[in-house]
Amino acid sequence: EPEVTQTPSHQVTQMGQEVILRCVPISNHLYFYWYRQILGQKVEFLVSFYNNEISEKSEIFDDQFSVERPDGSNFTLKIRSTKLEDSAMYFCASIGTEETQYFGPGTRLLVL
Amino acid sequence: AQSVTQLGSHVSVSEGALVLLRCNYSSSVPPYLFWYVQYPNQGLQLLLKYTSAATLVKGINGFEAEFKKSETSFHLTKPSAHMSDAAEYFCAVSFGGYNTDKLIFGTGTRLQVFP
Q1: A76 closest CA partner among A49, A40, A110, A38
Q2: What is the pLDDT, as a whole number, of residue B100?
Q3: What is the mean pLDDT of chain B?
Q4: A51: burial class by Cβ within 10 Å (0-12, 13-18, 19+)?
Q5: How many CB pairs lie under 8 A apart between chains A and B?
Q6: Which residues of chain B from 60 to 99 reach within 8 Å of chain A, CB to CB?
Q7: Residues of A near B (CB-CB distance < 8 A)?
Q8: What confidence score (pLDDT) does residue A71 get?
Q9: What are the φ and ψ backbone dihedral angles of A16, each rounded to 5 degrees?
Q10: pLDDT tens, B3-20?
Q11: Which chain B residues have a beta carbon less than 8 Å from that of A102?
Q12: Contact criterion met (CB below 8 Å) for B36 and B20
């Protein structure tokens, strides 16, 4: 069964460093999303992406964040200068024709 | 304002007992409704969804949910809990009226199952 994959599964970084989280959506999907879940809190929408541009972004998705689809398979989330409060689990999701967002297993980011 | 509310951050049941996890939403347009399950240290797995077809929706692992427009609810049930059902359950809603809209999640309900 096709699935969304994410790398790395865990990332530890120093405050102020740049991180890139990678996702490979399901191959025939066209809409892509990033969500995050701070430990013990609910899952929050960050950004949606379609046709090589951002469709919608939340208040969380400020200038420190960017997304890119550098090739036909990867979908990346970049945080330019990480802050302590960026520590969270980041989920990628994609949607096809089934009206359902399929989520990846997540990347746990820890900013020290 | 559009919102999703899950009543009860923790629910405990005995194995074999009925599971009832509550979800209410606030919206002026018919939403798309979803339940996802998250096992420890894992991602989000879709349990079931409502997208304007039958109001009683059956999902995986014996779970089902009923969309009640008059009550703006989408409660998740399972007749008989199993130890393997212990996990965190999230109700999620797409308010935009289209299937590619972002999901708004509830705060989650952690289900514990005792032998």
Answers
A1: A49
A2: 82
A3: 91
A4: exposed
A5: 52
A6: 90, 92, 99
A7: 31, 33, 35, 41-45, 48, 50, 55-56, 58, 91, 93, 95, 99-106
A8: 86
A9: 95, -15
A10: 899 999 999 999 999 999
A11: 46
A12: no
In this structure, the strands spanning A88-95 and A107-111 are antiparallel
- Distance, CA of B108 to CA of B76 (rounded, Å): 12
Nearest to B79 by CA among B16, B12, B6, B10: B16
Chain B hits for A100, CB-CB cut-off 8 Å, are 34, 46, 49, 99
Structure tokens at A75: 């979908």
Torsion of CA B89, B94, B100, B103, to 10 degrees: -50
Tokens of B16: 């074999």
pLDDT averaged per 10 residues in sequence order, chain B, 115 residues: 89 97 88 91 88 86 94 96 96 83 93 96
Rounded average pLDDT over A14-42: 94
pLDDT given for residue A72 in this prediction: 77
